Batch of 2 targets.
Target 1
Amino acid sequence: MGADKTDRNWIGFDLGGTKMMATAFDEDFKILSSERKKTKAEKGVESGMDRICETISEALDHAGIERKRLGGIGVGFAGPLDLDKGVIVDAPNLGWRDVPLREILEKKFDCPVVVANDVDAGTYGEYRFGAARDARCVLGVFPGTGIGGACIYKGRILKGDSQSCMEIGHMIVVPGGNLCGCGRRGCLETVASRLAIAAECALAATRGNAPHLLELAGSDVREIRSGTIASAIKAGDKVVEDIVRHAARQLGMAVANAVNLLAPDVVVLGGGLVEEMPDLFVEETKNAARRLAMKSLIDPVKFAAAKLGDNATVMGAAALVAEKCGKDG
Amino acid sequence: MGADKTDRNWIGFDLGGTKMMATAFDEDFKILSSERKKTKAEKGVESGMDRICETISEALDHAGIERKRLGGIGVGFAGPLDLDKGVIVDAPNLGWRDVPLREILEKKFDCPVVVANDVDAGTYGEYRFGAARDARCVLGVFPGTGIGGACIYKGRILKGDSQSCMEIGHMIVVPGGNLCGCGRRGCLETVASRLAIAAECALAATRGNAPHLLELAGSDVREIRSGTIASAIKAGDKVVEDIVRHAARQLGMAVANAVNLLAPDVVVLGGGLVEEMPDLFVEETKNAARRLAMKSLIDPVKFAAAKLGDNATVMGAAALVAEKCGKDG
């Protein structure tokens, strides 16, 4: 860290199961450049780490950042992490185990590295730069393929002992309900994730109740994406709209339960589904939560759609490493 | 605070709907004296505040504490509080509104006063002196007439904006279930509080399925106390035991949901029901939570019955005011 405190640049990195993104930021967290690659995790850890380093190097080069001005790298990742060690413990979506991500990047780029859960990083991004700027307590809920959650409490991510927590997707909202990917039944993900909604839509399409959806995507759950669902609603599939609104209300019940515990002042909703249908989700989730949570705790809560979209994780991760390096005080 | 830092004494005060208790502590939080009175809130605020001050004075006198050695007073109270101002906002169980408890006590005793939620204080007591000593993150759950919750995260009580939170009793565990005192349906309190259990037991007694309970307490919900329920089980009422075990499993589901969010390392169970049946509650709640929470989050959790009993709130409240006064750091 030879650079002056005030002019350091930062890298935010978003490592996903299918794609990765490296974004270079200036000292005020303005985006200078952004590089994407496919993850190609099936080619193995070594090749994958090479791609990660390559993507970061390209982002630095395209932004014209000299290595000595690189203050640090923040990485957001969706799988189980040892947060203290910066190790990917066991990532089923990559097929990787025990990968010392932080150590590898620190050696390669000779700078501090922070490895964080991607939803934690994304919610921290919204807290620092987006829809929940400087809130006392932010609850972030991101329905997508699964449903991620995070809580920033008085400026700090709520965490377990070296692992991420706030697993709102596995809150049981329908006791004895449908089977969840985690092996239990009735988790929020079984009723309000993109996959759960897609399965209900596929059923409706099969029954002939969602003609536009059927035309757009057929009845294969894997083909029914957030965008398809939104398009089918716009085209007039009332049943699809009912399914999504019901899912958003279930989300509202889980949010109500979490609000009763955590008393956030802002609830940020993000992720693929919300990006496609922000008004529907924010309205329906908010109304359900207001009905189901305690008045004194829910009344002060502001509901908002995430503002940073795909950049939330890289911005949050960059801000986390900058904070660790004392940029902010 | 004329006294030397190291030899200050503290008062912990537990203000309940029916009774109050003042306990005097030495500088090491050893109990020196303890005074109880009935609250008699119906006689009005002024008379009630007089009783509070009298009880504190008696505890000080009986412990032989000179006023100048009193470091501070910590108060735990069950109703809605403005924590920053130390004001009882609106207490249905007392019929009191807008009572500036902290201000009154500060003037009367000329020392710092902290006003806290009683379950927050009790859980803090268990964290400092009891079943969860020095844990990174403690979840306290206290099933009684209602069900209180609290979380001590890295030594600090998780709070809302000047109000208490962690309202696990109002987590919805049976969507569309029975009516709760809060006006909503299916809250944890409707299936696992002492009142909910008593109502089920009263039904069983009415049907002739709980002969011992019927003999001990009749079928009046208000007469069926935690002790009666425990006695009926000991006497052989299998149906009563089933009811209580089922309630403890429901409690376990709520605890599982909270563990998924907060990743505590210790869950402390306390309150009247648990005091009467600690093994049953800890075992059944733990087993249910282990089935229903995410493995990586629930595996490290230690379950324990509260150790401080009736003293938890006064000990925690005293420790809170001592901490505020810098005794500990």
Note: Chain A touches chain B at residues 80, 136-137, 149, 151, 153, 158-161, 163, 165-168, 170-175, 182, 184, 253, 256-258, 260-263, 265, 291-294, 296-297, 300 (CB under 8 Å).
Target 2
Amino acid sequence: MATVPLISDEAASAEVLAVFDDIRSVRGTDYINNFWRALANDPPLLKATWERLKQVMGPGELDPLTKEMIYVAVSIANGCEYCTHSHTAAARAKGMTPEMHGELLAVIAMASQTNALATALQVETDEVFRGE
Amino acid sequence: MATVPLISDEAASAEVLAVFDDIRSVRGTDYINNFWRALANDPPLLKATWERLKQVMGPGELDPLTKEMIYVAVSIANGCEYCTHSHTAAARAKGMTPEMHGELLAVIAMASQTNALATALQVETDEVFRGE
Amino acid sequence: MATVPLISDEAASAEVLAVFDDIRSVRGTDYINNFWRALANDPPLLKATWERLKQVMGPGELDPLTKEMIYVAVSIANGCEYCTHSHTAAARAKGMTPEMHGELLAVIAMASQTNALATALQVETDEVFRGE
Amino acid sequence: MATVPLISDEAASAEVLAVFDDIRSVRGTDYINNFWRALANDPPLLKATWERLKQVMGPGELDPLTKEMIYVAVSIANGCEYCTHSHTAAARAKGMTPEMHGELLAVIAMASQTNALATALQVETDEVFRGE
Amino acid sequence: MATVPLISDEAASAEVLAVFDDIRSVRGTDYINNFWRALANDPPLLKATWERLKQVMGPGELDPLTKEMIYVAVSIANGCEYCTHSHTAAARAKGMTPEMHGELLAVIAMASQTNALATALQVETDEVFRGE
Amino acid sequence: MATVPLISDEAASAEVLAVFDDIRSVRGTDYINNFWRALANDPPLLKATWERLKQVMGPGELDPLTKEMIYVAVSIANGCEYCTHSHTAAARAKGMTPEMHGELLAVIAMASQTNALATALQVETDEVFRGE
């Protein structure tokens, strides 16, 4: 169960429907997933989130699959069940093979363990890593 | 300050030196960064961590820069200061441009906010995302 | 499923029932939610947790709704499903409107993204922020 | 040290300076804190983040101090050092007294412990908390 | 639902079956829990994870129950539902009594709240804690 | 720098001094570490935290070193720098050898990686793990 009702097309305001239509158009599918239907309880938040997502995940220096795998990695590190499902599915739709999925998980697991070790050891940052 | 002393080459056992030598050889540099010198307080843990890291970050389906950016993303989501520095530097060394860095951060920021929103809304996972 | 059985009134010891009675009295309802019934497997932990919660969430400088929304924010950031549900419901019961809920989520999402960015950039704290 | 250089006014592009000017105008101070100077390495990310922050933290149903304390709470839960400093300072500037700070911390500490307990116990969400 | 199919014995490759057999042998049970069946989608990751787990959780300076309770503590702090269930069950199987479970939870709750407070206060580390 | 001033003995109220005295007496040392001096800005929060800590970390079913290592594990998983330092030092004072420290870190690193993997795979909890 969600903490808010999911907004159906029938219950949606014009402002919400306009966002739903744009999601449908950009993604080339009629399906609106639950995240957007829940977020639609606050139309300005829905619109701001979708507009920014569209921009961030759009064309750029990084290819779409790389961006999607980074999204999966952050979602897992943050322990977000819904996001792990939705972005793993999105990465598959963008070409992630089972072998790539396995490597993605191996890198995430590796980072998780060295993150814990570096925190445990409270290692001081080496001067050579300076970005300034 | 670290929670353990950093092990210098002079203080290192033969087991530790063998790992340090392998790090130097694989990375093509004489420099051993503080993480490994701290981890060297427990030689078996040092060896196991390095051996696995070498394997995970080695050649595969994902290119080295993609793996390194995923590593950065997890390190940031886990709030690891040292790892954020060391892997950001490693990503730069593997070709990450300022534009790519900016996009990486934009994806991480985007994921962080939708992760929080999905958790806040407790959205149920859509059937279409099933991986089974 | 929980990792422990939920303790019914019938199965509760006198020590547990005394806490349940106090919860009922303070909250003005007969309903004891699952968290307390699970925690009741360890009566001293149940008692200590409830006594402290009652004190912390009681009258003070911050009004009850503000405290409850802060509780929701922490629960979301910590990824606690149960707590997100129970404290969102509590905030509603204390007067949180849908508009306030939307703003609460917008602030949480904003903080989540700038938290990630500040960690990614490893920004040094400005002297002007000193609290000392 | 940061992972990127801080952009001074002298080194800033026109696009960055326009954002800096807006920050100065909205906040009524000449001081630009390090977060924005670091973020300025990616002008579009700087602009998008500032524009959204201005909107989210602007006038609404929740008063400015409440929003700022929620921001502090999320920053602490996410373990962000810089954000904890900057938003604690901002909350003070908006009227948070030492007594209110103490209560804020007490609520955050309380939530942190019951979040951990609820996760430990894997308590199932009560039907009465349904928001649908 | 998982993000990948669970691999049955019938669907398992020889490499996967060899790991399953070793799990069965080390644990003295025919039952292979879902984690390993999901991980089996990537045989090298399955093998590397199991081999390391067997080594880390094997005989050493810390007794098996202590190791298992530490595993539970980390799993709870990381908000991992599956791991909290599986390692709480494992700790019980290794002798954790209800009283020990209650104390374990009390320590985890205590640490969670002082962690939050120390982060909120940004306390500087005392010189006396130096491990160097 | 901390977000609040550290309270010296000279600046402390009678209520604060009483807690400081109890800390000195229980720990058998004159030294009051920075955490308590920062927390002393809110005397009731100082008192409640110390009283609970004293109770939780006192004699029970789990021995003091085991409790302290669990505290370290949670502090690392939560990314708390101060707590990692203070509780690692405390564990050493209670008898943690370098070998035990190494094993503690190995378990934490192992748990961190399987936590990430279980979240990535969204593994469903096996019926056999039921605690009810």
Note: The first helix of chain E runs from residue 14 to 27.
